[in-house]
């Protein structure tokens, strides 16, 4: 399958292409699915870092469609990892529902990057949703004993059953989607300190709103904020 103009752009920006092979899948909840892969040489070629993501290419009625997913439990030596899909209507979710061992999918690596905050903050402040949960889990593993407050956007009761990898020193606050921005603006300011590190990954509009609030209203230095819009709300 060709990758269209998006693939051409990624090539210009030195995107690297790989083919992943499905080894299995599991239904985590009715609305969340985990698919296991061999990496096609990806991990040995480019390494791995927290919140690392890849672009998968799906067929959408004969046209190429790419979506980004965070690696879950990457194992460089074994050449394996998993990807987690928050299920909804769309070609990516449809593909994950049907994925069986032996199936393959094309992928491109370009644009991913994360630097562990230095110095480490006294507490990480994290804002995300089901689409960014794999990245949140990998972020919490950067410094396993580091306290964190996580504001997590939910849209369904089943979101409470998602595979959070939180520990006793993590303060997980689940918030309905319609209330997320208000809750964060009310509560975040009380946790800001000189060494604050804030990580935000929701839909594009929410991410922009909260990033602007953190940078302008709370005056957190830009190098202590990492944000990325994971998807666009319809």
Automatic annotation (TrEMBL):
GO terms for molecular function: oxidoreductase activity. PROSITE patterns: FAD_FR. Pfam families: FAD_binding_9, SIP. Residues 15-117 form the FAD-binding FR-type domain. Transmembrane segments: none annotated. This is NADPH-dependent ferric siderophore reductase. It comes from Kribbella rubisoli. The lineage of its organism: Bacteria, Bacillati, Actinomycetota, Actinomycetes, Propionibacteriales.
């Amino acid at each position: 399958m060709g990758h269209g103009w998006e693939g051409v752009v990624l090539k210009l920006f030195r995107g690297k292409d790989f083919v992943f092979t499905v080894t299995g899948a599991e239904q985590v909840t009715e609305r969340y699915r985990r698919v296991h892969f061999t990496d096609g040489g990806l991990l040995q070629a480019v390494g791995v870092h927290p919140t690392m993501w890849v672009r998968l290419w799906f067929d959408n009625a004969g046209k190429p469609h790419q979506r980004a997913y965070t690696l879950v439990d990457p194992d460089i030596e074994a050449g394996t990892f998993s990807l987690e899909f928050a299920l909804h209507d769309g070609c990516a979710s449809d593909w994950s529902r049907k994925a069986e061992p032996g199936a393959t999918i094309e992928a491109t690596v370009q644009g991913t990057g994360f630097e562990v905050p230095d110095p480490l903050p006294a507490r990480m402040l994290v804002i995300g949703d089901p689409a960014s949960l794999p990245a949140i889990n990998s972020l919490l593993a950067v410094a396993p004993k580091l306290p964190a407050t996580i504001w997590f956007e939910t849209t369904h009761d089943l979101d409470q059953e998602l595979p959070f990898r939180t520990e006793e020193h993590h303060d997980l606050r689940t918030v309905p989607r319609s209330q997320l921005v208000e809750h964060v603006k009310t509560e975040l300011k009380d946790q800001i300190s000189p060494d604050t590190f804030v990580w935000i990954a929701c839909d594009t509009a929410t991410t922009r709103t909260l990033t602007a609030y953190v940078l302008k209203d709370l005056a957190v230095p830009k190098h202590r904020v990492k944000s990325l819009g994971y998807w666009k709300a319809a």
